[in-house]
Design brief:
single chain, about 550 residues, alpha/beta, Rossmann fold, 2 domains, nine-stranded mixed beta sheet, seven-stranded mixed beta sheet, about 35% helix
Length: about 550
């Protein structure tokens, strides 16, 4: 296990914000799929004081990533061990093999309760204890494909009743659990920041890229940001939110309608598809983990990047990437290795490849590989593969535009996903043969949820160091440079919460492409998640 690298988080909200997260205490009630995904996300966010309460025992061997919690073991005990082993061995994670009770919850310390149980008794106890302890409460309930989330705090939302009826005894689907976990942990972060807003005492110094903004800032490329002001404008949940991923009417996917009958379709019945996952970063990780729940199928992962330490808070399968030899540390190699352990029935292929019409020579320098060792992913190559669908999981804009062109030329369904930060967001757009008039690169404007893929260069780093040496900037000042590559200490890029949501939306629509007889053929044109939207999701249908 590597130490979690939170440089990307600190580039957004500074060390003060990360200290708030680290020192906060969160109680997670439950141990089903929702709880598991919430626990992964809350731990990698950086919370180090976590209590888990549930009396469930493992009914059959349970996979936590590629780790097995054996049948018969206390589920929360197994989760505690896995969270420490995979993410943070020094974290104060404690499991309690018990039903939630007033006496147990009275004895624990927490700033926030996340109740994932679907159980009314448990939710009422959590509600009561949130009042007693002046804590926040996120109540989450889910079935196979639908869910609801509510929030209570006596200061921020005192009139809420977060007890959610109608889910008792329902199984929690893996896609809806990932969707909800991403959203819930973002809601948790916002609450913890608001609860500790007075701890944001120092401004964050950010680098300005745009010339017009530099000019407005007295020709200085640096400006100080009071992150406290951003926390003040963060939108907490004002009302209960409902989503149904399986709903055939588009409106019903984001709004609960009276007398509407929810249909519980199978979560991942995809009938042996062949899918290309282009990009093995955070989005590709989440997509691969969810698709590992298929009974059978063929998944090809393509990327040329290797794992870096800054990846491990977003790319969960990379938790022990430092154990792999240098030549085995490519993202695609590690994902395929891990997924083959989770589901040996899948046919998996790792492709060290570059998406584009021609190979960029700089890639050879970056990877240290010969030209013959990198596969060129172009229209001709894709045409020979006969994919049922392509998932675009790259953060590089040019690769995504090329990929959408190749999908159009080969008549292959394509789903593109992207995410960003401040506000935390994620989105998907679809290309369906016969529906799109143009390729995605011509038909859609991606700006707004895909950061510019410019790379922070040595000149900028030298410039910052020069400013520090001249006494204009102190060593303690922190920097955020918007739109940089994943490896930069000055860049936040996307967060795991937005990636988790976007990947869930992607897999949900993939089901309709592969098996419309079960999931319906009403595929969305686009879905956008943003933590500052009142319903958190916006859906755009095909005309």
């Amino acid at each position: 296990m590597q130490t979690l690298n939170h440089s990307r988080h600190e580039a957004l909200w500074g060390s003060q914000g990360q200290d708030i997260i680290r020192n906060s205490s969160v109680l997670v009630v439950g141990s089903d799929n929702l709880a598991v995904e919430v626990l992964k996300s809350i731990t990698t966010l950086g919370v180090e004081n976590i209590s888990i309460v549930s009396n469930e025992r493992v009914k059959k061997d349970f996979f936590f990533l590629d780790k097995i919690i054996p049948k018969g073991k206390s589920k929360v005990s197994g989760l505690e061990s896995c969270l420490k082993e995979c993410f943070n061995s020094m974290a104060n994670i404690k499991s309690y093999n018990s039903l939630a009770s007033n006496s147990l919850l009275t004895s624990l310390d927490y700033d926030l309760i996340i109740d994932t149980t679907n159980n009314l008794t448990s939710q009422n106890i959590s509600y009561n204890m949130a009042k007693v302890k002046n804590a926040g409460l996120l109540t989450i309930a889910a079935g196979l494909n639908h869910r609801e989330i509510d929030f209570y705090n006596q200061e921020l939302r005192p009139n809420a009743n977060p007890v959610i009826k109608g889910y008792d005894g329902l199984n929690q689907g893996i896609i809806i659990s990932n969707l909800f976990a991403g959203m819930a942990v973002e809601e948790a972060r916002k609450f913890l920041f608001k609860r500790n807003i007075d701890k944001f005492t120092e401004p964050i110094t950010r680098y300005i890229e745009r010339p017009e903004e530099v000019e407005q800032n007295n020709n200085s490329p640096f400006k100080e940001i009071e992150y406290k002001n951003i926390v003040k404008t963060d939108l907490i949940l004002k009302k209960r939110i409902f989503h149904d991923l399986s709903a055939k009417p588009f409106l019903n996917r984001v709004r609960k309608i009276e007398d509407y009958k929810i249909e519980e379709t199978p979560v991942l019945y995809l009938d042996n598809p062949k899918i290309l996952i282009a990009g093995a970063g955070s989005l590709g990780n989440f997509a691969g983990i969810m698709l590992s729940n298929m009974s059978k199928g063929e998944l090809h992962f393509v990327d040329f990047d290797s794992f870096e330490t800054s990846n491990n808070v977003r790319q969960y399968l990379a938790y022990d990437s430092d154990k792999y030899s240098i030549d085995k540390r490519f993202k695609t190699h590690i994902i395929v290795d891990k997924l083959s352990k989770i589901n040996p029935n899948l046919r998996l292929q790792s492709i060290v490849g570059y998406v584009g019409s021609e190979l960029n020579e700089s890639i050879l320098k970056k990877t240290g590989l010969n030209k013959s060792e990198i596969t060129l992913i172009n229209s001709d190559w894709i045409a020979k593969q006969n994919y049922d669908a392509i998932l675009g999981c790259f953060d590089r804009r040019s690769a995504r535009f090329d990929l959408s062109d190749f999908a159009y030329e080969t008549n292959t369904p394509y789903i593109d996903a992207g995410s960003g930060a401040e506000p935390t967001n994620g989105a998907i757009k679809t290309f369906i043969p016969g529906k799109n008039k143009h390729t995605l690169s011509k038909d859609f404007n991606f700006s707004g949820f895909i950061p510019d893929p410019k790379k922070v260069n040595q000149e900028l780093i030298d410039h910052i160091n020069t400013q520090r040496s001249a006494g204009r900037l102190t060593n303690g000042q922190e920097f955020y440079v918007p739109g940089q590559g994943c490896g930069s200490e000055y860049n936040p890029g996307s967060l795991s919460m937005g990636n988790q949501v976007a990947a869930s939306l992607m897999i949900s629509e993939l089901r309709r492409i592969i098996n419309p007889n079960i999931y319906g053929d009403k595929i969305v044109k686009s879905v956008k998640y943003s933590s500052d939207l009142s319903k958190r999701l916006e859906v755009m249908a095909w005309a």
